[in-house]
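User: quick one
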Amino acid sequence: MSNAEASLEHLFRVFTMPEHKDSTLSQIEQHLSDNLSDFLSRHVVAKRTSLEEIEQDFNDPHLPSQPEFVSTHAEHLLEKLVTNSVNTYAPTFIGHMTSALPYFHLSLAKLLVGLNQNLVKIETSKAFTPLERQVLGMMHNLVYEQSDTFYANHLHSAVHSLGAFCSGGTLANVTALWVARNTKLAARGDFKGVSKEGLVAAYKAYNINNLGLICSKRGHYSLGKTVDLLGIGRTNILHASVDSHTLDPKEVLALGKAYQAQGNDLLAIVGVAGTTETGHIDPLDELADVAQELGCWFHVDAAWGGATLFSDTYKPLLKGIERADSVTLDAHKQMYVPMGAGMTLFKDPAASTAVRHHAQYILRKGSKDLGSTTLEGSRNGMAMMVYSSLHVLGKSGYQLLIDQSIQKAKLFAEMINRHPDFELITEPTLSLLTYRYCPARVQTVLQSGEYDTHVINENLDSLIKAIQKQQREAGKSFVSRTRLGINAYPNECITVFRVVIANPLTTVAHLNDILEEQVKIASKVPLLNTLMTCIESVDHVTA
Amino acid sequence: MSNAEASLEHLFRVFTMPEHKDSTLSQIEQHLSDNLSDFLSRHVVAKRTSLEEIEQDFNDPHLPSQPEFVSTHAEHLLEKLVTNSVNTYAPTFIGHMTSALPYFHLSLAKLLVGLNQNLVKIETSKAFTPLERQVLGMMHNLVYEQSDTFYANHLHSAVHSLGAFCSGGTLANVTALWVARNTKLAARGDFKGVSKEGLVAAYKAYNINNLGLICSKRGHYSLGKTVDLLGIGRTNILHASVDSHTLDPKEVLALGKAYQAQGNDLLAIVGVAGTTETGHIDPLDELADVAQELGCWFHVDAAWGGATLFSDTYKPLLKGIERADSVTLDAHKQMYVPMGAGMTLFKDPAASTAVRHHAQYILRKGSKDLGSTTLEGSRNGMAMMVYSSLHVLGKSGYQLLIDQSIQKAKLFAEMINRHPDFELITEPTLSLLTYRYCPARVQTVLQSGEYDTHVINENLDSLIKAIQKQQREAGKSFVSRTRLGINAYPNECITVFRVVIANPLTTVAHLNDILEEQVKIASKVPLLNTLMTCIESVDHVTA
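Assistant: Done. Structure below.
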């Protein structure tokens, strides 16, 4: 056997020889399976505090020249990567939408890689294709509640799709608005449609200057990416109701009409069901009326809030979503599925025809290959995770999860309101809220209306920023922060803590600890003194 | 405890109680770990043959109302889903680019879900962010081979990115050409750039009618989606060298100049390094010259062939790739990483500034959040799979894998050439080839030049289609099929078998079996008789 043959045979072992049961990697697996929370609290210990320090461990731009034993590498992963990851499972990690997941996803993840299906086409996915179509059907049913005959006719139809899976909410929004654009600017007369001839020819054929998209100022930043990508341009995002967290249908109508009167047309109104920053929900039912009157597409970005539909109690908050032409959902948010499970749902099963495409070796005409209407090409079988989660938790399980999250957020809001040194900034419509640290004395000064709030708020901003950073770095808990314009301070933006109650394991005691820790950090931050001095000087000057 | 509380407590168990060691799901896991190939051959047994039958198992559009035991559900998955999946690990599955993966990815998949990081921002990924940047740096180094100082300056820079991770090659192509478009149509004078003002304003500001993209007819179908999405329009894809599998630089230059002379400009020339259908490589170095002369972006779609750069032997085939402005790579193809690991690499680390975006709660200016320049938002830590694979296999391991794949493809081509009843249609440049079944007698007739080849080829097409379908349905092996225009039959397209030698475990014996099986199927297909009768009648008529 030559050297090369020997090396090759050795190399093939990674494909054919299972990990030994006592290997480091098998032990990691075992620990994950036995006690995930223990694994994470033992290994995710933030050995290095600053990002710059961590970067030192990932600095080498050279390819490793020689193979390395799997166990050696697994040790390395534990020591350098896992240690300095984020414990998103921790019940005190309430700053973003990533949370604990059910145990069974660990095993399913392994099955998914073991099967390594590619859902772009049936030839590499087989049963996964009908499964994904069924999941889309179930989610379509959750939103649109059509008849059994409707689903019997469309679920597995080669010329229809009830939606499109994708890696996440951004692509779901892009897919929805791509379909909307191509539907709006379809072929007519000599014009062969925007897909074929492009946007410039389309605007000419339709005799318009611009296409606009209306959303609130809380619309997700992916909408900006979408109109950029689609060639519509970011300046054609029209923000209505800028003094509010949600759209006022009357203002949307007026804005839309004025825009159309200037020789433009509207691509879509985008209503949000659960804004990323504050969890607000636009008045969907009334927006559907407005979209109808303006003759434009109605898209609902329910990436966060869509799962609220599982709850009989809170579902009415989303009234009107069933009138949307398209809806974005993220199963990796409130459906507790691993990262990478976005979906666009279409009211009209023929809608995606506007972006249908073919190739010679796959996606042939008449095939049921999912890739014919998806934005992505090769994709994994993430739909299985959603399918399994729907079965193991059931609608009633999801209802409980949604209900307890919202109730906990409301409790937390009460706790903040009761605490003298905190200010609730936005109430939780769903399970998101924002608040800030603001000593009682400062609140009184601000509310008196006798002082220049701007300077005080700027000082508070720095204080909030410092508290948030120190709390994150201490590693026990995490809230995020954002900047919001609120009615109390027109023409200002203030920095606030942002909380997402997503983890079912978060208790009221955890929430209490987080507030206590913030008070404690605040008391030691020099900025608090600066702020109090500032208050005194403001007092002094204006009194 | 109320009923609701009891249900909630029960529900929380899926988050807190590990799977029992004897549970069905744990047993599945164990089987996967112990012997993946055995698991697949026992469970992926194609109980149902037609897609319509499988669809019956995934027909219910109603949400499961009540929770189900994990074990009950796991049984269900085995019986309905796994059974009717595709065994992409089988060494006789040589029809597509999905293949066996190293064992360690099974464990890593579990770790990835256990950690559940979100790479859109550092706050939910921490060490995963520098890790992803390092992987992009290593892959950039593989393609562009810049100095150590270059990487020291850019690898972790907040205002640079050496590339962008994404779910696959389609998004990688979209990302590259999005950056190209926004760079081409950047702000100038009063015009604020295409990102802000849109495509119509941009064409006006730059005084052009259209933007075109030049590629060969073998360019991936995602390029069509890309120009559709970007608003450029599918008719502005200009196919040069339509009689060839690869671009002729002179023709590209002439086509580009003629197009520009008509008041248009060029967005990009896209060279392919390993076409999906046939594995051909465009003359990249000369195309780089042409792109320079035409003043347009040069993108190389190396989703399949990029990994060839690991091989010192075959790397010269890609000469010139280092001159591309952007390069698409798919680690889930020849880097043997699970589905979902696409990348765009940028020659200029500042290129992605053209699509940079911000939000208040994340991606703040100056942050190193990866989401500031990616097309997707939330993303999982797939970069870890690439990182680990690079370490465990090493450059030398990848070199061996690439070399043996190409060598095996060349051997297979020889086997086909030697066999009297097969015709090699396209030679393997890399590890892809196409061929067809064509009985020796028919080959003689076709080559004689005395007959109308069209009728004979149509009969052959049906025969190939039938053989491919029956072989797939028999479940032992799988080759794909496509339709190609080749020089031997101008103005015709013929149906061919398409083979991708990706699985390292495929042996020459397997390849031999596949040919033998095709001969056997052919002998039983009534179409063969039809074909032979047709030949006789053609003989008869024209002799």
